[in-house]
Structure formats: structure tokens, C-alpha cells
Amino acid sequence: MKDFPFVELNINKVIKILVSSDVVLYFALGLFSPIFAIYVIERIEGGTIAAVGIAATMYWVARILTTVPLSRFMDKTDGEKDELYFMVVGTLITGVIFITYTFATKIWHVYALQFIFGIANSMIVPAWRIVFTNHLDRGRTGYYWSIEDIGVGVSIAISAFLGAIIAEKFGFNVVLYVVGGLSFVAAVVLTLLRKHTYTMGEIRRLAKERRSLRPALKGHSSKVHGSK
């Protein structure tokens, strides 16, 4: 298929799968994020503006406490199989969290769910970035990241509007069930990576190739800047 100016249509399968899953997941999250504060204030006992802030803090506390340990574990374990496992399980947990929100009645329920959501994202985000980075084609790093940014941006922009409309017409529970269902779809999309992930040996080989490029790059830099 012929490429268009500034748009390359030949994208490798791993990048396509990762971006597709992210687009679905962020579309789901975008349905609820803009109305989260209204949900807490209107539906939850003890829900206040301050409580919404505390709920956000609980999410980030969980992320801060768990991201580094989980990332270090992924770096040391079994090629990319563990990253795939963390992404799928974390995405499934995300779906369960939002469905569980339909049963929340007290503010501590919200705090607990937000904390678990933070842990789920500590599983998903580093694993996703590791696999994405490992499979970047040489010379296309910026392009692939831009595809990810645009895909996620468009999905959130559309879903933010749709989530508010759905909540207004059908209620919060319908939005939460849709978020949960789409999160499960995103997890299923990620399972397509099973045949495309690297073994530990392949990752070491790629790292060795990248290290071997550094002297050449340094030499090129010296020529460019006129150094000796």
C-alpha cells in the first residue's frame, strides 16, 4: 500500500496491536473520567469536592509505591512474556474496577477502588512501554510515538463527549458497564501479542546491536560539530 506524505502505512504488527489496545482502553476511560467528580458527589455517601481530590491522590500513591518494584521485576523476568501477562491482567482488573463502581456507596469504597486502579496501571503502563520500545523500527521512533499520541488523543476527545451524553440519558451505571466491557476488549486485543513477543535472548541481541551503533553515532556527531 502506497504511503501518503508524512503518513507511513506500513507499521509493524506489535505497534499496531499496542496502539489499538491503548485506543480502546483510553476510549473507555475517557467515557468516565470527565464525569467522575459528579459521580462521586451525587452518588457516594460522603462525596465532596475534597473527597474527589483524595480519591485522585489514592490513585497516585498506589502508582508511586508500585511502579518501580513492578518495573524492576519485569526487567529481570522471562523476556516479554511477563510484560504481556502484566498488561492483560492489569487491563482486566481495570474493567472489574469500573464495573465494581456500580456497587460503591461509601467514599472509602471509592478510595479503595482508586488505589487498586493505581496498582493496575502500574502493571499496564511500564509493561506497555517496555514492549513498545523493544519493537520500535529504527528511524521511526518519533513517528510511532506520534501515532500513539494521536490515536489516544482522538479516542479520549470523542469518548469524553459520549460519556457525558450517555450518563445524562441512561445514568452512571450504563457508562461504567461500557467502560468495563471495553476494558475487557482491550485485554483481548493484547492477547494477540503472544506470537510476536521477544525472548530474553532476542532482547539481549537487540541491546548488543544498539550498543554497537553508539561509536558510529558518536563519530557522526563529531563530524557534524567539527570536533576532532
Q: Could you explain the architecture of this structure?
A:
The chain is built from 8 helices and no strands. With 228 residues, it is mainly α. The radius of gyration is 21 Å and the shape is globular. Mean pLDDT is 86; it is low at 1-7 and 220-228.
Q: Kindly report the average pLDDT value.
A: 86
Radius of gyration, whole Å: 21 Å
The SSE order reads HHHHHHHH
Put simply, the count of helices is 8
Helix content: over 70%
Taking the alpha carbons of the first and last residues, their distance comes to: 45 Å
**Main sheet record:** none
Count of strand segments: 0
Strand content: under 5%
The shape, in one word, is: globular
| Structural class by helix and strand composition | mainly alpha
Low-pLDDT stretches: 1-7, 220-228
